[in-house]
Amino acid sequence: MICCEKCFRDSEIKGIIRSLNNMGHCEVCNGKDVYIYDTESNNNLVDSFNELLGIYTPVTSLPKGFPREKLSLLKDVLYDKWNIFNIDSEKIYTLMKNICNEKYEESPELFDYPIGILEISDENYLKSNSILKTHEWEDFVDEIKTKNRFHTKYINTDILGKLCSYIERPLSKGKRLYRARISEESGFPSDKMGAPPPGKASAGRVNPLGINYLYLADDRVTTLNEVRAGAYDYVTIGEFILKEDITLIDFTLLEQISPFTGGALQLAINMEHLKKISNEIAKPLRRSDGPLDYLPTQYIADFIKSIKYEDGKSYEGIKYKSTLYQEGYNIAVFDESLFDCVEVCVYDVKGIEYRYNSVGDR
Ligand SMILES: [Zn+2]
Asked: What is the Å distance from ligand 1's center to 41 Cα?
């Protein structure tokens, strides 16, 4: 079977296929003049996929009490949980059987029966390898809101730090970002466009009450959405420029972490937790939110801010998707003095577009 680079999203796999330097026609996605991989004559992907398959056990070999809700078919695991393929789950099934044909002959139940990760039911493994140890995110939320705030033992910070390092990215000096404030027609001067003064900041998903972070967005449209400007509002937008090279934890990269660079089992155990954290950080503030609702993500952000490696490396902020403007992203910067506001401009909002979902009949 001939597949191609375009059948995959994973950068490691794409790289392997490209390095074979064979051009041709893909039988799986129908790509023409693409870098191809022939499962009959090439074997460069076999070890990588066998290693990934190695973290799963077919239901026939799992202990009786293994939680049923943690079982899925391989094709669905590979389609839903990992961002490896660019084809649907039926095609994934056929392609996997061809890539790993020896494995399929040896243990077809891995491909055809529901599979699970044995370590998910191993308390000792979870305690030392899961961000949330043996807990779920909701347990942590309850603990930090109502039981133990500053010295919670629910988070395995060693693992959180390690997994964060997979999504650290540099942000170069000179980078331009934006912040908006609803204003009068006369607008705000540049010295009023930064974070609120220390002690005055209201709580956000990243910053605790009284601790001021600078929230910036990638462009003007994102920032208009983030500030929730209404029709006929005047909005002052400040343009900020980064004064030195910094490093961020970039939650928008979660989808791009490859299981083929090592540590696939630990990653598999933690991927849902990481996505939860990322979604919680990106969740828009609602008027109905209470002051305790932001504690869980503030705790995570505070931990990221506290990391300081022996070589002096630390993280100066967190990048996350904008939920109010799909194409945009936001950055919460821990130290606002890293940026200068170089320009301010006042805009008159001419109209806004509403997007909504039904949340059910009442
Ligand atoms: Zn293809």
From this structure: 16
Domain residue ranges in the chain: 2-119, 166-348
Q: Which of 315, 321, 335 is nearest to 164 (CA)?
A: 315
Instruction: Tell how far the Cα of 256 is from the centroid of ligand 1, in angstroms.
Output: 19
Pairing state of beta strands 246-250 and 329-333?
A: unpaired
For 42, phi and psi rounded to 5 degrees? -100, 145
What is the CA(31)–ligand 1 centre distance, in A? Answer: 5
Burial of 199 (0-12, 13-18, 19+ CB in 10 A): exposed
Task: Give the H or E element holding residue 299.
Answer: helix 295-306
Tens-digit pLDDT string for the chain (362 aa): 999 999 999 999 999 999 999 999 999 999 999 999 999 999 999 999 999 999 999 999 999 999 999 999 999 999 999 999 999 999 999 999 999 999 999 999 999 999 999 999 999 999 999 999 999 999 999 999 999 999 999 999 999 999 999 999 999 999 999 999 999 999 999 999 999 888 899 999 999 999 999 999 999 999 998 898 889 999 999 999 999 999 999 999 998 999 998 899 999 999 999 999 999 999 988 888 888 999 999 999 999 999 999 999 999 999 999 988 878 999 999 999 999 999 999 999 988 877 788 888 77
CB atoms within 10 A of CB 286: 8
Q: How many CB atoms lie within 10 A of CB 189?
A: 11
3-class secondary structure, 339: strand
| Distance (Å) from CA 21 to ligand 1 centroid | 15
- Contact in structure between 154 and 140 (CB atoms under 8 Å): yes
Distance 254 CA to ligand 1 centre (A): 24
Residue 255 CA, ligand 1 centroid: distance in Å = 20
